[in-house]
Specification:
Elements: E1 7-12, H1 15-23, E2 32-35, E3 44-47, H2 49-52, H3 62-68, E4 73-75, H4 79-94, E5 100-104, E6 107-111, H5 122-137, E7 141-146, H6 149-156, E8 164-166, H7 172-178, H8 189-197, H9 203-207, H10 211-218, H11 221-228, E9 245-256, H12 259-279, E10 282-293, E11 298-309, H13 312-323, E12 333-345
Helix pairs in contact: 4-5, 10-11, 12-13
Length: 369
């Protein structure tokens, strides 16, 4: 039998926006986004919970956000401040374990199966971490605790903001069976629509499918879906994972058809990618465009430059050049994405683990978290 792991996922609540509201009292309780103003080309990098009530989220084009909420406050990002706060938070993590896998400035996985403070309760550790984060930064975080990364990630989003959610070992399988498929981490909007079309509405429905059939329908990621339907995920928490690429993408409902709206969406994604590369202090020489049509056919096009891609205008111009290499006339587009690779700078930063690992066949469900 495999020993049960104790995994915590910590996710800061509306991190960038909450920092701005913390530092500027007049912003508190008001709809606010971090990102370019409506007059600028770009998109929302983060939205406060007040802004989310208007249907404004990360990746929303700034002009669209303004139309949804004309009194919305636009604040330019301060990545030096966010990074400094993120370092404070990570120092707190390392008081409990060295097995910390940051996914971004505002979230991380922690494996506390064995920990530095000798606590047997992962829930107690998560409570202490949340309290220490608030005492240090005056910011709230949500925590999810469970037996693997997939479940911990879902749990952290169950009771936001300032939430704490435990999925115990003996409830893991039932929890997944009852979970709507659109709540599965790693199942995006486009895949949700496809699954609904196949009659898959919940984890219980997904569990009825064989691994072979899921692979036939979804490719290699079908193996991952087969495992998570059974609450299985053996991906380890990986500190110091080398980042090989940095990307941003968005799915669209309804699909994009007109060239002007496709270009606008591509520019917004480019702006998000630029902010992410700035936040990570890294640049790259290769830009890859990913495009998925309404029929789920996917194409990619790449270009490698002799020098690093450092400016937003360069990202946009290369992206438009790559877009010219694929057919877009009168073909509905469901997804657009841009990725930078051949990285330089903070190349030792961590990379968000892709959902492609297999999970153990036998998970011991008897240990208290």
């Amino acid at each position: 039998m495999n020993a049960v792991r104790k995994i915590i996922h910590i996710d800061m609540d509306a991190f960038y926006a909450s920092v701005e509201q913390r530092d500027q009292p007049s912003y508190r309780g008001k709809p606010l986004v971090v990102g370019g103003s409506p007059a600028q080309r770009g998109a929302v990098a983060a939205a406060s919970y007040e802004a989310r009530q208007y249907g404004i989220y990360s990746a929303t084009p700034s002009r669209t956000a303004y139309h949804k909420c004309p009194h919305l406050i636009f604040v330019p990002p301060r990545f030096d401040v966010y990074r400094a706060i993120s370092e404070q938070i990570r120092e707190i993590f390392y008081r409990y374990t060295d097995l910390v896998e940051p996914l971004a400035l505002d979230e991380a996985y922690l494996d506390v199966t064995q920990n530095k403070v000798g606590l047997t309760s992962a829930t107690r550790i998560a409570q202490e971490i949340k309290q220490r984060i608030y005492e240090t930064t005056q910011l709230t975080a949500s925590a999810g605790i469970s037996i693997n990364k997939f479940l911990a990630k879902i749990a952290s989003g169950m009771d936001k903001p300032n939430g704490l959610c435990l999925i115990p070992p003996d409830q893991a399988a039932t929890f997944i069976e009852q979970l709507p498929i659109e709540k599965f981490y790693g199942v995006g909007q486009v895949t949700t629509i496809k699954m609904h079309g196949l009659g898959i509405q919940s984890g219980a429905d997904l569990k009825q499918w064989s691994e072979a059939d899921l692979v036939q329908q979804f490719g290699k990621v079908g193996r991952f879906y087969y495992k998570i339907a059974r609450a299985q995920d053996d991906r380890p928490v990986q500190p110091n994972r080398i980042r090989k690429s940095l990307g941003a993408e968005n799915s669209f409902d309804p699909d994009l058809i007109d060239r002007p709206e496709i270009l606008q969406a591509l520019e917004a994604i480019a702006a998000i990618l630029k902010r992410r590369s700035d936040a990570q202090h890294t640049t790259g020489r290769t830009l890859t465009l990913k495009l998925k049509y309404a029929d789920y056919q996917q194409v990619t096009r790449s270009k490698t430059l002799p020098v690093a891609i450092e400016h937003l205008d360069t990202i946009v111009s290369v992206a438009i050049e790559l877009l010219g290499l694929v057919k877009i006339d009168h073909q509905p587009i469901r997804l657009l994405g841009l990725t930078i690779s051949n990285l330089s700078g903070a190349a030792s930063d961590v990379e968000h683990a892709a959902p492609n690992a297999t999970a153990p066949e036998d998970v011991q469900l008897s240990l208290e978290l």
